[in-house]
User: Fold this.
Amino acid sequence: MKPYDYLVVGSGLFGAIFAHEAKKAGKTVLVVDKRSHIAGNVYTEDTEGIHVHQYGAHIFHTNNKKVWDYVQQFAEFNRFTNSPVANYKGELYSLPFNMYTFNQMWGVSTPQEAAAKIEEQKADADITEPKNLEEQAISLVGTDIYEKLIKGYTEKQWGRPCDQLPAFIIKRLPVRLTFDNNYFNALYQGIPVGGYTKMVANMLEGIEVRLNTDYLAHKEELDALAEKVVYTGPIDAYFDYRLGALEYRSVRFETETLDQPNFQGNAAVNYTDSETPWTRIIEHKWFEFGKGADGQDLPKTVISREYSSEWEPGDEPYYPVNDQKNSELYAKYKELADAEPNVLFGGRLAEYKYYDMDAVIASALDCCEKELG
Ligand code: FAD
Ligand code: UDP
Assistant:
């Protein structure tokens, strides 16, 4: 008999939910994380009373009622609604593309006028079957919006020209002929009051967690501690990259505290020209309406500039590159993973999948149902 039923590798959402449910089912659990903190990429750190999203801005949004109801036990969510602003060389536009944007761009004031303007630009561009992101974008919103709000941002974000990028990337951005500037088409949306770290700490309450512990560096001794392993780290690292490394797209964050209460008046401002080196600036306090824990206005502010970058082995893995080459490589690792006895692989790194938080929670709950009954 080993001391624990489960060793959970990684204290991100997947690991924390599995650990929580396993404990609830009467199992003994040990969680390890190689970082010095819990919560994986949703980790928020307190600076000047502001919950700073250390690994990129995280906005919880979902249409999945089961997931929404589930997370309520760990956090109360505020009513934050994501409405980024685009800054193109000092001109400001509302996002996602909606009647405010069309009004700002063309001076039109009715949906009919906006639709006619888009149609006119689309006809001029003469695109019938969009073959790439550029053509797709022009056929959705016309040339002006493509040139000012899409081209520069997208090329910075993906490091490639828009006519060499797949059309589907832009399809997830809503285009609305209404004055609705809610970025997400989601029934439920918000930020956990008190920060994401507190929410994950609530999931892990009463569970032993060892931080600064790299499972792969201590595999043998840690494996000896538990009957089964739930692994949420990178799948290629688990197999010591024996088939090669999976590629990611990375982001670099430059965060600074400013001695002023308000820098940009919004949580997210996208810089959509190609000259500005960063893609966007996040001002963290606006996720919580600029208020501290006791509801007071905060005198300082914290901002993060985001720079999209090529990923090099050793960098923090952010976005999986789900192209054919990497998908095929992942499929081979998946075969190895399926054959690995007593190890469950889950989460965004172990499944090499871009999971939003709600999807990773749904996937963790699914895994719990299968494993714990
Ligand atoms: P992670 O949070 O990455 O957790 C994995 C954990 O495993 C980490 O803590 C890591 O340290 C640990 N680990 C890895 N290897 C080892 C090892 N060898 N030993 C010990 N520990 C190890 N989703 C949304 O819904 N809304 C958003 O607005 C949003 N914004 C995002 C912005 C960015 C920049 C990114 C990259 C993602 C965003 N997401 C967003 C997605 C969200 O971050 C993920 O869905 C979620 O974090 C996945 O949780 P996870 O547990 O699978 O992985
Ligand atoms: N996009 C854009 N301008 C913007 C915001 C987004 O052109 O101001 C494009 C860009 O190509 C991006 C895509 O729309 O990759 C999807 O946007 P989303 O915000 O979903 O991107 P994410 O940062 O989540 O990948």
In short: Residues 9-15, 32-35, 40-42, 56-60, 214-216, 232-233, 251, 318-319, 347-349, 355-358, 360 surround flavin-adenine dinucleotide (ligand 1) (CB under 6 Å).
